[in-house]
Structure to design on (486 residues):
């Protein structure tokens, strides 16, 4: 079973050395085909840039509370300046080296709703010259002392293809007794020899092994051969929807199943895995538990559109609130903090989903509640339920309420197929949730009048709707409590 509380990452200083990139997104809608050629015409709605490649690894570390230092190459161009600005904004140590002979690696993705139309890459893949190599090594040697982990993020863009560079870095780190984690690329794994942990995906493992993997046993056998061949202490194989497989010396292979979640975009999932794994080891967590936590983190980021990091709040929410049923995790991802809810709503919206919101105490769930929730869900594509906390219910209903604590009420709501997300709120009203999540439709029961619905003016101010659902039967939690008491 997974740990319920995150490790303390506050004092974890981690170097990320590798291929830093700028990920640029151009988002919009396609309404017609160009008369000039049979291609779609994109009406641009939004443009933004985020850190990609090794930069995304560093951003993942920073967002979960580590002190991240990024070492890599940028060009003397506007994209390099943007990458430096992003380092500053995300509180990442900027040790980037300027190479005037090449551009900053930039990937531009053009997207209509959730569909990627085209990706444009700007890069120069020639092996770096000796002076750049020396400057990278110098930056690494200056910063490695006092670090708790080093991550080598190899995207095959030139840094680790320099002769002996990777082995020099690993040797320096080992001299300081700092563990080295490698996200590999290509077949030449000799350069990763004596790393603490290598994290290939299945296809990368097959490429190095020279064979197709046909079962869990075969995967474990091939991974163990490779681990021994390259003197790695651990290998963590990421397997997409099949989860992960962890192998270490004198350890039984550990198969970690994935958690069923909606997948919007797998971009950056490997970055999140290696960042979370290294951070957990740096914080003193053992490898099996660190791998499980990395698996959970990957499951969160694939639910986001584009290259986006994991946050401490998201990871903590999932680790704390997932209920184990003995065979895995149930109702994963259907609850969380307001911050994680906001990110999930953003992903849904990018998919064109209409968001419905309702709220209540839902103490002693009864058929009237079920009818309200099912009718609300039918009005859109996603239903978010704001759930009053125990303290909030006491203030509204009296000292003897709630009958069921918030954790139990949360589990019951999450078990309903019509409910997509539950967010607990401490205030007496859901105004803060409504202002933050901006639902398309706000729903309450017909025992309210429109002018009485909390949040009505907020929703209507940005063009949203307010709807009342007719009540069925004469159901009331208060009457049920009174009947039981009598």
């Amino acid at each position: 079973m997974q740990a319920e509380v995150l490790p303390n990452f506050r004092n974890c200083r981690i170097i990320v050395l590798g291929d830093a990139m700028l990920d640029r997104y151009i988002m919009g809608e396609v309404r017609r085909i160009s008369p000039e050629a049979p291609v779609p015409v994109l009406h641009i709605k939004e443009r933004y840039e985020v850190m990609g490649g090794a930069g995304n690894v560093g951003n993942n570390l920073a967002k979960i509370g580590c002190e991240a230092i990024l070492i890599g190459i940028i060009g003397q161009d506007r994209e390099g300046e943007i990458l430096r600005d992003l380092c500053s904004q995300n509180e990442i140590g900027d040790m980037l080296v300027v190479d005037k002979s090449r551009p900053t690696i930039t990937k531009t993705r053009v997207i209509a709703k959730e569909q990627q139309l085209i990706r444009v890459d700007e890069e120069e893949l020639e092996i770096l010259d000796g002076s750049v190599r020396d400057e990278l090594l110098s930056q690494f040697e200056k910063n490695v002392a006092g670090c708790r982990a080093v991550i080598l993020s190899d995207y095959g863009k030139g840094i680790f293809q320099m002769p002996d560079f990777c082995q020099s870095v690993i040797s320096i780190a080992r001299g300081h007794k700092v563990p080295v984690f490698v996200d590999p690329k290509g077949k030449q794994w000799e350069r990763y020899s004596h790393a603490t942990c290598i994290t290939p995906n299945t296809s990368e493992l097959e490429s190095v092994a020279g064979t197709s993997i046909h079962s869990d046993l075969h995967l474990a056998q091939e991974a163990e051969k490779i681990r021994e061949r390259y003197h790695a202490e651990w290998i963590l194989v990421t397997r997409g929807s099949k989860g992960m497989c962890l192998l270490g010396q004198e350890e039984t292979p550990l198969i970690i199943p994935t958690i069923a979640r909606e997948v919007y975009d797998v971009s950056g999932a490997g970055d999140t895995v290696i960042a979370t794994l290294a951070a957990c080891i740096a914080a003193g967590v053992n490898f099996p538990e660190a791998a499980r936590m990395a698996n959970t983190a990957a499951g969160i980021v694939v639910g986001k559109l584009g290259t986006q990091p994991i946050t401490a709040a998201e990871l903590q929410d999932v680790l704390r609130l997932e209920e184990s049923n003995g065979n895995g995790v149930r109702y994963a991802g259907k609850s969380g903090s307001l911050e994680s809810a906001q990110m999930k709503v953003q992903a849904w919206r990018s998919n064109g989903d209409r968001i419905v919101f309702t709220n209540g105490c839902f103490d002693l769930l009864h058929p009237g509640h079920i009818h309200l929730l099912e009718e609300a869900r039918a009005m859109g594509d996603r239903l978010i339920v704001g759930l009053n906390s125990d303290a909030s219910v006491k203030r509204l209903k009296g000292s003897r309420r709630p009958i069921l604590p918030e954790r139990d009420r949360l589990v019951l709501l999450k078990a309903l197929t019509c409910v997509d997300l539950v967010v607990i709120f401490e205030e007496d009203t859901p105004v803060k949730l409504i202002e933050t999540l901006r639902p398309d439709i706000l729903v309450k029961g017909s025992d309210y009048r429109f002018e009485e619905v909390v949040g009505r003016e907020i929703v209507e101010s940005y063009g949203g709707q307010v709807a009342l659902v007719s009540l069925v039967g004469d159901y009331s939690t208060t009457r049920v409590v009174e009947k039981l008491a009598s």
